[in-house]
Write a structure and sequence with these properties.
Keywords: Signal
Order of helices and strands: EEEEEEHEEEEEEEEEEEEHEEEEEE
Number of helices: 2
Number of strands: 24
Helix content: under 10%
Organism: Amycolatopsis lurida NRRL 2430
Strand content: 25-35%
Structural class: mainly beta
Pfam families: GSDH
Shape: globular
Strand order of the largest sheet: 1-24-23-22
InterPro entries: 6-blade_b-propeller_TolB-like (IPR011042), Glc/Sorbosone_DH (IPR012938)
Protein name: Glucose dehydrogenase
Distance between the termini: 52 Å
CATH class: Mainly Beta
Largest sheet: 4 strands, antiparallel
Radius of gyration: 20 Å
């Protein structure tokens, strides 16, 4: 029987500092929200402040730590079986956590529903507790399909319902379920292919579901108005086209999706974002109803495998993106109007920080509150897992993270 390391959550949450490492992403900006053209500048390389873990494990000069200003920070011990000594970890020994839905709270004891892509198992992951079975959804986990996204109902506090994007033997679909109950279909018939089966679910500020669907391995379907593949769909909780859609009676909110990683938004819903993977690059889109996804807000030509995202712009000035191939976090500097103003800072890559930290391949990310998010790892899906993988981890970028790079 698997056991987990129990720890008391008593210290402040982590402030993860961005490094000065810059990607070679292409300079393809969409600054229409700012109403002005982006002018590149050449700022000095930002200093790299120390990475500080939630328990002060890096750079803490408290009693007994031996981490004074001129001393080397004490590294976190490696995992021992399912015991993980990094206090950013709240759940261990799961299998390919491709879906995370954080439960809102004050962040002092964060929790989330975590979905395993291949098994369809959903568990409640919470700080200070062992993961607990919540429900299981039958899925076809072959290829890139399976359980690939979770979202809490807009009325979760009252109805305790959760929406999941899954692959079945015949299609991709959105289902609705409650704890311990069988899933009920909400939106079915989304085309299935050998690839392109990933989907992402989010909610907008008006209580509608936003569903990003893959192109089922056929890029032409993304532009086909008759297909549900390769779209961002906006539906109500029963799966019908939501009121206020660009075309009344149609569920289509935007077209041009290929292999979505995640949907995220700010607290007011004024900024909506989608990460996507194209054949030649990974991209971040600003979502606007009725507008096709043609010009990314940012592009990565090195294809790090963009996955989840979290809009921390109000608290930090950054949009944070997880990557499931490069295995790092990337902070994109973004204005309140939603304009990307420079290259992303890369951190949690095992190179930046004192000591450097990495959790390996990261997948879905979901916000607990405007300054705290949770993410899953997918190291058992092509990565290099440690004994405590796969995990659910806390993501808390520092408000003093370094500046953006030049164009």
């Amino acid at each position: 029987m698997r056991t987990r390391y129990r720890r008391k959550w008593t210290a402040p949450l982590a402030m993860l500092a961005c490094g000065a490492l810059m990607l070679s992403g292409c300079a393809e900006f969409d600054n229409t929200a700012a109403g002005q053209k982006f002018t590149p500048v050449n700022p000095p390389s930002p200093e790299v402040p120390p990475q500080v873990g939630p328990g002060g494990e890096a750079g803490d000069s408290g009693p007994g730590r031996g981490n004074g200003p001129n001393q080397t920070p004490t590294p976190v011990p490696p995992p021992q079986g399912c015991k993980d000594f990094d206090k950013s970890v709240i759940a261990t020994c799961l299998d390919t956590v491709a879906a995370v839905a954080a439960i809102p709270g004050d962040g002092t004891a964060p929790s989330a529903l975590a979905g395993e892509r291949k098994s369809g198992r959903i568990l409640l992951a919470a700080a200070e507790k062992d993961p607990a079975d919540w429900a299981t959804v039958p899925v076809d986990g072959s290829g890139d399909g399976g359980l690939t996204s979770l979202a809490l109902s807009p009325g979760f506090a009252e109805d305790q319902l959760v929406f999941a994007y899954i692959t079945t033997p015949t299609d991709n679909r959105v289902v609705r379920l409650a704890k311990g109950q069988a899933p009920k279909p909400v939106l079915t018939g989304i085309p299935k292919g050998a690839t392109g089966n990933r989907g992402a679910i989010g909610t907008d500020a008006k209580g509608a579901l936003l569903v990003a669907t893959g192109d089922a391995g056929n890029p032409g379907l993304a532009a086909d108005p008759a297909s549900l593949a390769g779209k961002v769909l906006r539906v109500d909780t029963s799966g019908k086209p939501a009121a206020g859609n660009p075309t009344p009676g149609s569920a289509v909110f935007s077209t041009g999706v290929h292999s979505p990683g995640g949907i995220c938004r700010d607290q007011t819903g004024s900024r909506l974002w989608l990460t996507d993977r194209l054949a030649d690059k990974d991209v971040l889109y600003r979502l606007r109803g009725g507008q096709p996804l043609t010009t990314p807000a940012w592009s990565w030509t090195d294809k790090p495998g963009v996955a989840g995202c979290a809009d921390f712009v109000g608290a930090t000035g950054y949009l944070t993106v997880t990557t499931s191939i490069a295995g790092n976090l990337q902070n994109l500097p973004v204005t309140p109007d939603g304009a990307v103003t420079g290259k992303p800072n890369v951190f949690m890559d095992g190179k930046v920080g004192k000591p450097p930290k990495t959790f390996g391949r990261l997948s879905a990310m979901s916000m607990v509150n405007p300054q705290v998010a949770l993410a899953g790892t997918v190291n058992k899906d092509g990565g290099t897992p440690v004994s405590s993988d796969d995990r659910v981890v806390i993501i808390t970028p520092s408000a003093s993270s370094g500046g953006g790079g030049k164009d």
